[in-house]
Amino acid sequence: MAGISTAHFLKASGHEVEILEARDRLGGRIWTDREASYPIDLGAAWIHGNNQNPLIDLAEKFSVNTKVTDFEDSFVLDNSKSISKLKLYSAYKKFESYLNEGEQILEEANRNLSLRELLDIIYKKKDLSALEKKLFRLFERGLESENAAELDKASAIGYFSESETISGPDFLVYDGYDKILKGLLGNIKIHFKEVVKKIQYDKNAVNIYTENNSFQSELAVVTVPVFREAERINQL
Q: Could you tell me the pTM of the whole model?
């Protein structure tokens, strides 16, 4: 979304803009499947908080339908039998308290751990019931969704360093998150399947070379996922 947002604001400021997209679709974490007669979001699906959240403004601007949701209204089945809200809530509070113990474990470890490693250390010290083990796996999927990464790739230090800056309810986007992307894109030209291999600067222009083509521009803005940049730095 960073690339399309940047392109949108540059275009609105009067600049000529084109986007080079490595994938064959719009979005990174945002990935809406419209093969069926209704949209299915395979990536981002919620807007978390509405207090000064620009995503809420964009959803309203582009007529994106949302619905307030609440975790406490979750309906969970175990072997076709409903789990009471009290049991679900109690298990979640226990999971949350166990996870909070991780800060002390991180201090003692004196190194970064993945969330998977951290939880495994915590679980070894606990006596979980069969139901709690099942529910904890459910809560772990929620952690992966929040961090946009599998637990063995998500940083525990990063998790505890995060600070909530946007308050308010959670909104489910139920007619396709890609409507926000398409609204931002407008009539901006986008080139799909253009994997950038090299960027060269000289006094007059920026030359961009992809696997298939070359492009020239006065300026270039590079927006890549954080984990991709981390991988690049680790390879240096």
A: 0.74
